[in-house]
Amino acid sequence: MESVLRAAVIYIGLLVIMRFAGKRSLAQITTFDFVLLLIIGEASQQALLGQDFSVTNALLVVITLVMLDIGLSLVKRRSKTLDKLLEDVPLVIVEDGMVLKERMAKARVDEQDVLTAARHLHGIERLDQIRYAVLERSGGISIIPKQGKGA
After folding, report:
1. What residues are paired with 130 via a beta bridge?
2. Would you state the pLDDT for residue 11?
3. Which residues contact 14 (CB under 8 A, 6 or more apart)?
């Protein structure tokens, strides 16, 4: 039972930490982000397993984490409020080529992130060619290009 409680506390703690870390933290992982995830995994390993390093305890912890994740996903499907709280909503960060600086600052996204996504997705080189740039729930940036002569 102690392993189940440990797993639940770590799961909820990591959920809260990652939610506050923001969308961009996991969307486009850098080498440093990968190293940070490895360190987080190593740091939480001891807390999850305690002094019992048996295979049975490890499987119990993994099953607990998976069941918590499945349970939370089912609850989020039924509660739009909880879903919005945990996952946030898509956020328009560029509108008609104009950068919405306050929104971008809040999401810790800069113009280069938007231009990188625009180049990769549509071959767009300038902000004035973008009708909308949307920071998605997943942390990715969707680009809707302007149509017509100016684009």
Report:
1. 145
2. 87
3. 40, 44
pTM summary value: 0.64
Sheet of strand 98-99, all strands in order from the earlier edge strand to the far edge: 98-99, 91-95, 130-135, 141-145
Tell whether 80 and 96 lie within a shared domain: no
Domain of residue 104, residue span: 91-145
Say yes or no: 58 and 23 in one domain.
Answer: yes
Structure tokens at 58: 């490890």
Task: Indicate the number of domains in the chain.
Answer: 2
**Quick count: other Cβ atoms within 10 Å of Cβ 11?**
20
Residue type, 128: D
Do 96 and 26 lie in a common domain? Answer: no
